[in-house]
Amino acid sequence: MTKRVSRTVAATVVAMGLAACGGGPGGGAEKISDGKIVLAVLNDQSGVYADLSGKNSVEAVKMAIADYKAKYGDKAVAKTIEVVSADHQNKPDIANTKAQEMYDRQKADIILDVPTSSAALAVAGQAKAKKKLHINVGAATTALTGDNCNKYTFHWAYDTYMLAHGTGTAVTTEGAKSWYIVYPDYAFGQDMQKSFSTAIQAAGGTVVASDPTPFPNDNFSTFLLKAPSLKPSVIGTMQAGGDLVNLVKQYNEFKLRDKGIGLAVGLMFINDIHSLGVDAFQGTKFTDAWYWNGSPENRAWADKFQQVAATRPSFAHAANYSAALQYLEAVQRAGTDNSDAVVKQLEGYAFEDVFAKNGQVRAEDHRMIHDVYLAQVKAKADVKEDWDYEQIIKTIPAAEAFKPLSENTCKLS
Amino acid sequence: MIEQVFNGLVSGAFFALLALGLAVIFGMLGVVNFAHGAFYMLGAFGAFIALDSFGLPFWAALVLVPPVLGLAGVALERTLIRRLASADPLYNFLLTFGLTLILQDAMKTRYGVQSQPYPLPIQGSVNLLLFEYPAYQVFVFGFSCLVCVFAWFLLARTRIGMIVRAATERPELTRAFGIDVGRWVAPVFGFGVALAALAGVLAAPMRAVNPLMGADLIITVFAVVVIGGLGSVLGSAAAGFLIGVVSALGNLYVPALSQTLVFILMAVVLLWRPAGLFGREETLA
């Protein structure tokens, strides 16, 4: 009898010892699953979004972990925090498999980033099935907090509604009443075209024509030649990455600006301006979720980022930092990494960090709302250093920037 | 409408230059050079690096980059392609495909995937009687036409061209006449690569310069070569311009089909003329 008891005790001690190996001394074995927190970054590390998110998003997440540890020290609930990452190549099937692997085999508690809407929706599906968290940063679709929303998925940085209502409304009310929209013929482009058309019409403008373009495409002259006959005040381009660069190069070649046809860009990352130089975009207005040189606080963070990444951060990098940090803060408040408890801590939570100003996680649809910015590309003469490309001309308050709950179709489950 | 056709001819110029190189290489070596798109990309990067690191303007790059990459092509043929010449053509296809991935990733590692900036060498527009068109694009069209004519002249009217053509069509017979066919293989490969690099340099000012720029293009160029007739040099160039116009008009009138249009055309041509528009049917002697 005593023998059996002592054996059980010994087994328990061994088990606890094993758990403690991961959790460190006094690691609260039962509160943190597997004795450690695993943050997984799943994004594009080799394709079109590799520069604006990619490996540097992993660095941003590591910065968040370092800041969390520095803040709580011995009091940190999560003693051991690991980061894993993988390349989803912007393919939903790969994203799906990798997400499964991360949640099951690598014991990920949360998957971060995931650009490309179709890939993001696949990961959100896995999050729901495995009851583990997904905070999306890189994808644009409003479906993540709309028709496809679920209890474990959050959307952090931006979405098509925010881009359309920032840029579409601002440019229209400033006098560009007629729009010619050119959009890539896949989910993101179609979504953007709809959101922009709605926003433009609501602001009193008209869409004279919208044309789908092949994707990818390197010859946009077809549409630029058609533009003058439509007499729009502005061409709204929904292209991204290399296609955007192609289009803008050709827009400048055809001198459409001199013919009185302006350019509005649906989704622009600071890397795009860097690619073409400020001259190509001069005066172009767009909606930005965050700008590295927007405040001294942002700049200080961008300086730290530059030390590890050797470049300036895009808004996606800062948003990944914010998402990782707020997740760890929620774990800290919950005292556990149990998904349901962490979700409860995140829902309705209002906060400020370097990325999110007036940030709040809406409990109803898991959209994180925050102030966003209407930016304008600087003239070359005003650029004082590398990456100093944007002038923030207006702050759009959090409450106005994102889709109002009254229009929302999300039913969390 | 006429403007749109001209626009098609400009993008067709790139197809023509690339298809020309591909056709010459296939004709002489029987190698389906999948790395052709990567050499196009390297051409564009060559122009960018020349400007960024050495301050060399576009015109210098236009003269320097194609020969340099052409020499690299010669070296590639001597060291790698040649070794697989006697094996199944699939081996060289795999080799050049692998090479493409290596070149793309090497450029990604160094320059990232974001496009690199490159200024327009000719500003302003030209009056072409019926319409105004950006001067640089007019230059691209004119210059590629010249290169195509030059390549045709070289192959059809010179002694070297005759040897190359003979070696392409009947290598054993050409050898029997005492001509060293092997000597011409590497220069022809280099010439094809140089044409791809030339297209790349021309693309740098008007297209996004990034490591993946050739990857999407190469598939269309293969279709162009097939439509023109495998190995038919003039046919490839003509098909290049034709496809340019077809896809430009397709973009405008049937946007949903625009990307498949080229391949539909290829299927139709293959059914109607299996040797391609300009190819000659092989007949057993």
Could you explain the architecture of this structure?
The complex is a heterodimer of chains A (413) and B (285). With 413 residues, chain A is of the alpha/beta class. Chain A has 2 domains: 11-158 and 293-369, Rossmann fold (3-Layer(aba) Sandwich); 161-289 and 373-407, Response regulator (Rossmann fold, 3-Layer(aba) Sandwich), CATH 3.40.50.2300. In chain A, 43% of the residues lie in helices and 17% in strands. Chain A has a 5-stranded parallel sheet, sandwiched between helices. In chain A, helix 8 links the parallel strand 8 (234-237) and strand 9 (262-265). In chain A, helix 3 runs parallel beside helix 4. The longest helix of chain A is centred in the first third of the chain and has 22 residues, at 2-23. Chain B is 72% helix and 2% strand. Chain B has 11 helices and 2 strands; from the N terminus they run ααααββααααααα. Chain B has a two-stranded antiparallel ribbon with strand order 1-2. In chain B, a hairpin with a 4-residue loop joins strand 1 and strand 2. In chain B, helix 2 (36-54) crosses helix 9 (213-228). Classes of the chains: A alpha/beta (413), B mainly alpha (285). The interface between A and B is large, with 39 and 36 residues.
Describe this protein with a few key phrases.
heterodimer, A: 413 residues, alpha/beta, Rossmann fold, 2 domains, five-stranded parallel beta sheet, four-stranded parallel beta sheet, 14 helices, 15 strands, B: 285 residues, mainly alpha, two-stranded antiparallel ribbon, 11 helices, globular
